[in-house]
Amino acid sequence: MKENPTGGNKYRQPEVNIGLTGHVDHGKSTIVEALTGKWPATHSEELRRGITIKLGYANADFRRCSNGHYSTNVKCPYCGLETKLLRRVSFVDCPGHESLMAIMLAGATLMDGAILVVAADEPCPQPQTREHLAALMISGIKDIVVAQNKIELVTDDKAVENFKQIKEMIEGVGLKDVPIVPISALHKANLDVLIQEIERKIPTPRRNPEVDPLMHVARSFDVNRPGTKPENLKGGVIGGSVVQGEFIVGDEIEIKPGIVLNGKYKTLKTKIVEIRSEKYRIEKAKPGGLVAFQTKLDPSLTKADNLMGCVVGHSGKLPPIWEELELETFLFEEVVGLVEKLKVEPIREGEDIMITAGTATTLGKVGKVARGKINVKLWLPICAQTNKRVAIGRRLKGRWRLIGYGTILER
């Protein structure tokens, strides 16, 4: 990876994470490419199948010229004037396929706002459109802009009909002042209006750099090439988004729940050797964008996303590890993600459910059930704060479907 050609002080880490969510094949990745020039699906299996499997990240500079035109270019593509940088944003591209819902839920944890992508050439809502909208609501994300994509494929009347369907869906979940922007990502049409609405609707959250830092691990890997000599090996790398506070190079960090040793989870402690944002070295990592920490860990511990779902913080400052949860549950009236309407039945004692907390997903066996509260024994432990919302899924028709959420109660 290259050094920052402009110097460490001039590189700007993104200020805000904006999710791209919606039904499979509605053009989320195409929108990211149109705005950033980067195709977010970089894994070979994603490219082969043409869908997003893992979370994809790409950054863009939002700019505006003195004539009020929005773009991502230094020179305005509409009038040729120089543009002023408004802020740097990071797009989190989430998978739309129904079998990858857990990864989408993990992505929602890292978002400050979201673009819900709806294709104009299909009836709205599609199953995963409803499911992703529900996931955003569970995650507490209400700063949403709808991109009505693929308008080049439909007539004006069809576009208006689809627009009304989108509006009805949005209002049906109690959201207000959600802009719906017709665009063609393929032809890069109306992207200026989309940027303008994002600037209006999705502000950069206020951050407190003094709080104890936390990062959710979305990926972990070994950067060493096969055949690297032992003396040249680099420590394991963990990647994700900082959700609060700030990390600096040299910090002693703790990683929970950690790794399995002799059948039990062991918390890891290590040191940050280097921090990267995009391809650049930075001295400090704060909320916004994807960052990667090179550590002193044995790279065998971090390879193949081994630590995905963990939480990183300063030693002794992390939330507790849970092997068993007490949850206050809030279930939907209907299962989302299915074409047909299916009522959500109450959670039963003894059934298996899926729990997603942050970037961690695990199954659990339900124990005692009483008055909207359940006890769940987890198959894999998670690290999470008390009162944190977790998504609850149930296996229906061969897939895990989102049926509601729960709030972690104190022990």
Based on the model shown, name its key terms:
single chain; about 400 residues; alpha+beta; Rossmann fold; Elongation Factor Tu (Ef-tu), domain 3; 3 domains; six-stranded antiparallel barrel
What layout of secondary structure does this protein have?
Elements: E1 16-22, H1 28-36, H2 44-49, E2 56-65, E3 70-71, E4 83-93, H3 101-109, E5 113-119, H4 127-138, E6 144-149, H5 156-172, E7 180-182, H6 191-201, E8 214-221, E9 237-244, E10 247-248, E11 252-261, E12 264-277, E13 280-282, E14 284-285, E15 291-295, E16 311-314, E17 321-331, E18 352-357, E19 360-370, E20 373-383, E21 389-396, E22 399-408
Parallel strand pairs: 1-4, 1-5, 5-6, 6-7
Antiparallel strand pairs: 2-3, 2-4, 8-9, 8-16, 9-15, 10-14, 11-12, 11-16, 12-13, 12-15, 17-20, 17-22, 18-19, 18-21, 19-20, 21-22
Helix pairs in contact: 3-4
Describe the fold and architecture.
This protein is an alpha+beta fold and 411 residues long. The chain has three domains: 16-201, 3-Layer(aba) Sandwich (Rossmann fold); 214-314, Elongation Factor Tu (Ef-tu), domain 3 (Beta Barrel); 321-408, Beta Barrel (Elongation Factor Tu (Ef-tu), domain 3), CATH 2.40.30. It has helices spanning 28-36, 44-49, 101-109, 127-138, 156-172, 191-201; strands at 16-22, 56-65, 70-71, 83-93, 113-119, 144-149, 180-182, 214-221, 237-244, 247-248, 252-261, 264-277, 280-282, 284-285, 291-295, 311-314, 321-331, 352-357, 360-370, 373-383, 389-396, 399-408. Helix 3 runs parallel beside helix 4 (127-138). The longest helix is centred in the middle third of the chain and has 17 residues, at 156-172. The protein is globular. The model is unreliable at 1-9, 41-54 and 96-104 (pLDDT under 50).
